[in-house]
Structure formats: C-alpha cells, structure tokens
Amino acid sequence: MRGNHMTYELFQVAKLFMEKPDRFIASITRKAAEGQKPEKVSICAIDNMPFANDEEAIAHAMAHHAGEFFTIEEVEVEPPSGNFPFVNRCPFTKELLGPPNYHKYEAALLNHHRTRLPNMSFEKLQSSIETVREEEVVAQWLESQKKATRYTAKEAPEGEEPKVCNSVEEAMAYLRTSLKGKVVKQVNYARVAGNVLEQYKDSEAFKAMDGERQRQQRFPLDAANAIRGRMRREKFSIYKKGAKGITYVCSTKRNFRSPGQVMSPDLDRIIRFLEANQLTKAKEMPAAYQEWLKSEGIEEVMDEKKVVRDLHWLIADGYVSHFEDDTLFAQPVLETGSAKPQASAPKAKPAEAPQAAAETPKTEAVAEKPAEAEAPSETEASATAVETGTKDEATAEPAAEAVASEAEVAAAGAQTPVPEAPEAAAPAAEEPEASKESDAPAAVKPTAEAEPSAETEPSAETEEAKAEEK
Questions:
Q1: Structural contact between residues 52 and 58, judged by C-beta atoms closer than 8 angstroms
Q2: pTM: predicted TM-score of the whole model, two decimal places
C-alpha cells in the first residue's frame, strides 16, 4: 500500500487481513455468566494457546513442547509378556492403544485422550474404540513396546540430579508440581497468532476464532474499527467520501487544488482530461488521453511513458486517487469562499420606530431646559424625577407634546412655593394621552444629576398618582 499509493476501501483492507491466518492476532476471552465477571483463561506459556483449565494447557505443553523442558531419548526395554489375542485401536488417529488386559492400558488410554483428543469427551472416545484381532497388528504393537521414551529434566535444583521420568504420566506430574509456573499462565484474555490456532483445528479456541473470522469476512465492521487506529498511527490517510459514503484508506493524503493554482502544461492537461473523464481505468488512460487531445485540437506528439510518469506523480502527490479497481479520480478544486459580509446594524422593529424618532427632539427639548430656567429649584428636579417613572406608548408627536408640557411644569414649578411641591406632580399623573413608549431615561439625562431635597419628598397623593398611572 505504501509503494503503489493506491486507495482502498477500509472494509476491503479488513477482509485482506482476514484472508490468511498469519496476518492477524486473535484475542480470546471466556464467556461470562449473567451478572458475573468472566473467568480467566489458561494459556500455554510457550505459544499462548488458550485452554479452559490448567490441566489442558499442561497436556498441550507435554504433547507439543516437551522438548522445551525435557531431554527426550528412546531406550530399549523388555516387551510385555503374556497372551494378547487382540489390541484396541483409536478410530480417529489410528494409533494402537494396546490390549485391555495389559496393566498400562488405562494410563495409555488417558494419555492418548489428553494429548491427542483433548476436545473430545472421554466417553465418546471409549465408545468408539476399535478391536483388531489380526496377528500382524498385535505383533506391531508388541514391537512398539520394545522401545520406551525417557524424559530427563533440563533444569534441576542446584546440587541435585536432574529428574528422570520413564513415562509420559511421570513427566506430566513433574510439570504439574515443579514447573507449573513456567508451563501455564492465567490471563484475562489471550492474544494468540492466527497461524498458531490453525495448527490446532480441533481446539475450542480455533473453532471460536474461525466462526468470528467468517462473520467478519461477511461484514468486517469490528475488524475495520480495530485497524483504523493502527493505520492512523502508521501515517495512513483515512477519509470518508460523502457524509454517509464509503471509508477509504491510502498512504497518500488527498491534495486539493486551489483556485488559480498554476501547474505545468502537461500536468494541467492530464488534470483537465481526468475531470472530463472521471473514473477512467488507469490501463486505458493513455489511449483515451490521446483521443481527448485530438478532440481538443491540441497538436502535440504524446509520449506515453512521460504521460504515465506524470500520472504516477499526480497519484503520489495526492492530486489524483487511484482506486483498487484501477479507476482514476481527480480531486476537485477547493473553493476558498468569499469574505464574510460585514454585520449590518440591526434594523429597528416597526413598533420601536416611532420611539426612535421621538428620541432626538425629546432630548433636545430637555437639554434646553437649563437655559430657560437659569437656576432650577429643588422642586423642579423633583417634578422631573416623578415624571420619569412613567413608561407610555405613543407616536413621535405625542412624545413631543409630553416634553413640552414637562417644560411648562418646570417653569411653573419655579414660581410654586416649596410646601406645595407635591401638587406639581399632578400633571405627570394625568398623562395617559402621552406616548406609552416614550424614552424617559433619555430625556432625564441632563437633570439626573440634581439631588432632590428632603423637603421635596413625594407625599401620599403623589404615590397614589404613580400607582394609578402604572
């Protein structure tokens, strides 16, 4: 994938990993009972092969990796003596187990089941055993008993002789008692290579892995998600074509051209040809490109090798995608977009337009009040403060009238004695005709700095007027 710069579907890459067992590692766990945590998995420390319990793992190590722990040699021994008219044979492995009246028959049968057929029930093996009465077969078994296998431990405590075992049963007992920590381990989940599982097709672990592999080959969602992060760490580019499109992976990141980008004439012509003929086959591209040049009226002798070289450069640089089905796709021009329009000032709402129109004359009228009254009294400030508590709605003309009456009240207030100041607030309380939406705070700004005196404190009648107006 790094060498050819081709673009693959992520699902197709996952299926490629599933095709051969040496391309993946299986993670195997025990199924948990409802409401409980899963039990640990027993694995052989040599090849990580998982098993249901420690005994199966020890039997596996003895059957397939005994040379890791023992020096194995064959020695001459005396054959069994006695009358053996027939022998039993395993129907699955075709190995001779010996006659039932031989004193080591039961041990040989148990060892055969443990090492050769661990996934088969012992009862099924017993019920399937064949009886062979041919003299040649019996003689063959007797001949095989003249040789015995001796197992000498490779490791021994300091100052002691290595352990010598004259049978498989003794060797397994030694592994179980003295070397168990080096033979079997317990883990939460086992990670084992696919090619290791392929060697033991009768094991439960292989059957579980093979069933999951077949499911993933049909719809490899889990496998694709598992390799997605790994491929990103390996600097592969992963992208989805369209909002709900297919996910692709490529060793080259896509390269979009910008508007007005200048390329050499040869590269530019190839890009224009691919844009006009998207998904052209790569092997058909030179011939189709030559015909396109003629149709465009470009009189130039085409050098096929140079065209192919330029095409490979565009693919390696990301301007063109070369898919696994041999089709070519030219990346589109990346539109940068125009500048964002400046935010316009918010328009006044229709109901607020009269109020905005009333603000300017109203403010000017109030601003001129200090000029008309050279020395505004404390009563004048109080009357204005009472008036600012109202919030009425009306058009611009009523608002102007309200300001005019406000000026009259201020002028009248200058001639009114101080004790009668509360009565000056009466016109403000009788102002229902004025605008309900008049901008009172804007009109009060020039007079807001006046500090009302304690003598001008509104009376109960003023409070009633304010409440009535609200």
A1: no
A2: 0.54
